[in-house]
Write a structure and sequence with these properties.
By secondary structure, this protein is of the alpha/beta class. It has one domain: 2-Layer Sandwich (Ribosomal Protein S5, domain 2), CATH 3.30.230. About 40% of the residues lie in helices and about 20% in strands. The chain has a six-stranded mixed sheet. The chain has a two-stranded antiparallel sheet with strand order 2-3. A two-stranded antiparallel sheet has the order 4-7. Helix 4 packs parallel to helix 5. The protein is globular. The N terminus is likely disordered.
Length: about 260
């Protein structure tokens, strides 16, 4: 014969599997990566004691303001992220929880990921140079552009590289700085014909930009909503779809004209 358990006892017994579940989940690694705002680099200046953009065979102009490319930093593919890490990050505006495979394709080793990121950065630099010289109607044989940015990978600096080249070569002959003396940040991939594409992690990149003094952020138009979600106070978003449009917006901003907004 079974004795009848009181209701509190039943509830206590039922709770045991749930407690065990939380203990197991809390200790087990989860298939996520945690990202946060990374570094920013002024493409018009130096990085690690070397100019980011070097131009030969053509006159250049000195920059007055800054064009800062932005990054995010994510936990590595071999880093175990547990339930506590995920739970804490969900409630922080300076963190983002992403599926690990969205950041690091399954099966790739650390070395493979690093190699791919370097390849993407080189391709981004080549596309940026092609887009900038195409916009300026310059013969690539008459202008020698070198881009250097160590320890940073991926394609998301393409737009800022292209703008930096245009600025250094004084694209419209005005002699004026594209930035108007401001600190302008942004992100976006770029194709050889000047089309700007989305990159991800924009809400974290705006925070990195605000931390480093930017007051204007160039964002791929498709990511306006993400950029707005954690926008630092006083920062102005300028949506872009092409290199030509980005240059036009910066010139309008400098002259007090009409500038697109998200």
């Amino acid at each position: 014969m079974f004795s009848r358990l009181s209701r509190p006892s039943v509830l206590a017994l039922c709770a045991v599997p749930i407690v065990v579940l939380f203990v197991v989940v809390g200790a087990a690694p989860l298939p996520y990566a945690v990202a946060q705002p990374g570094s920013t680099v002024n493409v018009l200046g130096d990085h690690q004691d070397r100019p980011v953009i070097t131009v030969k065979k053509a006159p250049t102009r000195a920059a007055e303001g800054q064009l800062r490319m932005t990054t995010i930093v994510a936990t590595g593919p071999a880093t175990d992220v547990d339930f506590g890490d995920v739970a804490e990050s969900w409630f922080r505006t300076d963190r983002a929880v992403l599926p690990r495979e969205a950041v690091y394709p399954s099966g790739d080793s650390d070395k493979e990921i690093e190699k791919r990121n370097v390849h993407d950065m080189v391709e981004s630099q080549n596309s940026a140079t092609q887009a900038a010289l195409g916009y300026l109607d310059r013969d690539p044989k008459s202008v020698d552009v070198t881009l250097r940015l160590a320890d940073i990978g991926g394609p998301s600096a393409g737009l800022l590289f292209a703008l930096g080249i245009v600025d250094k070569l004084d694209g419209d002959g005005s002699g004026g700085d594209l930035t108007g003396g401001r600190t302008i940040a942004g992100t976006g991939t770029i194709t050889g014909d000047g089309k700007v594409g989305p990159v991800g992690g924009v809400s974290l990149k705006t925070q990195a930009a605000g931390r480093d003094g930017a007051t204007v952020f160039l964002v791929p138009q498709a990511e306006c909503a993400d950029a707005k979600s954690e926008l630092p106070d006083g920062m102005r978003l300028v949506p872009v779809t092409t290199l030509k449009g980005a240059v036009s917006s910066l010139r309008a901003l400098e002259k007090g004209g009409k500038v697109p907004s998200c």
